[in-house]
Amino acid sequence: MSWTQEFKSALKTREEISNFFNFDFPEINYPVFIPIVFATKIIQAGPDSPLWNQFLPHKEENNVDMGRLDPIGDKVHAKNNQLIHRYENRALFTPTTVCPILCRYCFRKNELSDKDEIFDQKFQEAKTYLTANPEINEIIFTGGDPFILSNEKLAFYLQEFAEIESIKYVRFHTRTPIILPSRIDEGLLAVLESSKHFFKRSMVMIHINHESELSDDVIEALARLNEQNIEVFSQSVLLKGVNDSTEALYNLFSVLADVKVKPYYLHHPDEARGAMYFYLSLEEGRRIFAPLHNRLPGWALPQYVIDIPGGEGKIPAFNPESFEFSGELINRFGEKVKIR
Ligand SMILES: *Cc1c(COP(=O)(O)O)cnc(C)c1O
Ligand code: SF4
Predict the structure, then answer these.
(1) Predicted confidence (pLDDT) per residue in 137-174, tens digit
(2) If you placed Cys at 77, which of 15, 86, 104, 150 could pair as Cys (CB 3.0 to 4.6 Å)?
(3) Which residues line ligand 2 (CB under 6 A)?
(4) Ligand 2: distance of its center to the CA of 46 in Å?
(5) Considering every ligand atom, which ligand is closest to the CA of 96?
(6) Cα separation of 333 and 317, whole Å?
(7) How many helices (H) and strands (E) does the chain have?
(8) What are the DSSP E strand ranges found in 135-179?
């Protein structure tokens, strides 16, 4: 089966997932989307496993008393529908709102409903903005998930960005190599290979939260990227009920390092409405993270980061002075921001 067929054969309704998993799921306020190839892996992992908890509905998703609708302030920094420019020299480019799966903890779960059709018209606007702001030297493809786009579409965007002289680096933030490893096909490898000629660096950041996501087919897909000399990094989110222990994180980062993926960021969970049941405090996170300094070399240890609510940006979450959280964080301009 091609990756597009695998993507289209997905479970979407409460009835479909209840039948497939033989489990009575609650009615929730958010859409569900699980490709059957991946659902098969969830069944093997079993109920309440890290795979199950990340993708299957939970009654707590309907809890509207806690959490923010735009937890990291993307709306504050959105330049048009496709660009988010928060940091001086890099911008997020969101060419699609489609993902290979819908993660229950997603911080964008309250906004991933826009339709893609309006997106194309906005692209010229994005290009104009980048040309007018030459301090931006890096384009980060995100979404949604950029690897859901066709190879032709990705090649088109890369060629367009290559015309802007100030863009030196490109990056792809994606969960697709984990969910649909067959997507790492010859065509995509060729697109990534050619991007190395347009830009100084072209990088892939995979989103992965638990060692059990690294099945054999995923490891093979990562090896294909590696053979093509594509630099691969990883981003993970600390999540209650998924990877909230030193042991789970140690296993994840050490296996990633073995398959030549550089752990880049461990994100503290965002306070997203409908995903607060995955949340844990900064103090808990710091206590889980600290012992990793003893167990992993610097090249296998990601930076633990927190996105300050309201669009203040990401900053280190670990504090060498204390586990307890004072309620204030220092933002990227060196100013103290009260968040409690
Ligand atoms: C996380 C993020 C980036 C990328 O940040 P790095 O620290 O360079 O990985 C860029 N723009 C926005 C809006 C972000 O949230
Ligand atoms: S793949 Fe990323 S953007 Fe898509 S649902 Fe999962 S966490 Fe959200």
Answers:
(1) 999 999 899 999 999 999 999 999 999 999 999 999 99
(2) 86
(3) 99, 102-103, 106, 108, 145, 175, 207
(4) 22
(5) 2
(6) 16
(7) 13, 13
(8) 138-141, 169-174
| Beta strand segments in the chain, E | 10-11, 34-35, 83-87, 90-93, 138-141, 169-174, 201-207, 231-237, 262-267, 303-308, 313-316, 328-330, 336-338
DSSP string computed for 279-333: ---HHHHHHHHTTHHHHS-GGG-PEEEEEETTTTEEEE---TT-SS--SEEE-TT
Radius of gyration of the chain from its Cα atoms, rounded to whole angstroms: 19
Nearest CA to ligand 2 atom 3: 144
Distance 150 CA to ligand 1 centre (A): 24
Distance CA 235, CA 272 (A): 18
Distance CA 7, CA 185 (A): 14
DSSP tag of 30: S
Tokens matching residue 61 = 């998703």
Query: Which atom in ligand 1 lies closest to the alpha carbon of residue 74?
Result: 13
Which of 72, 82, 85, 86 should be mutated for ligand 1, with most atoms under 8 A from CB? 86
C-alpha 214 – ligand 1 centre gap (Å): 25
From 75, 87, 235, give the residue whose CB has the most ligand 1 atoms within 8 Å, as the site to mutate. Answer: 87
Using alpha carbons, list the distances in angstroms from residue 334 to 77, 228, 312, 329.
19, 40, 11, 9
Handedness of CA 258, 261, 265, 271 (dihedral sign): negative
Residues of the chain with pLDDT under 70: 76, 81, 112-121
Q: Report d(CA 282, CA 275) in Å as an integer.
A: 16
108 in contact with ligand 1, CB cutoff 6 A:
no
Ligand 1 lined by 86 (C-beta under 6 Å): yes
Give 177-206 pLDDT, tens digit per residue. Answer: 999 999 999 999 999 999 999 999 999 999
Nearest to 36 by CA among 2, 6, 57: 6
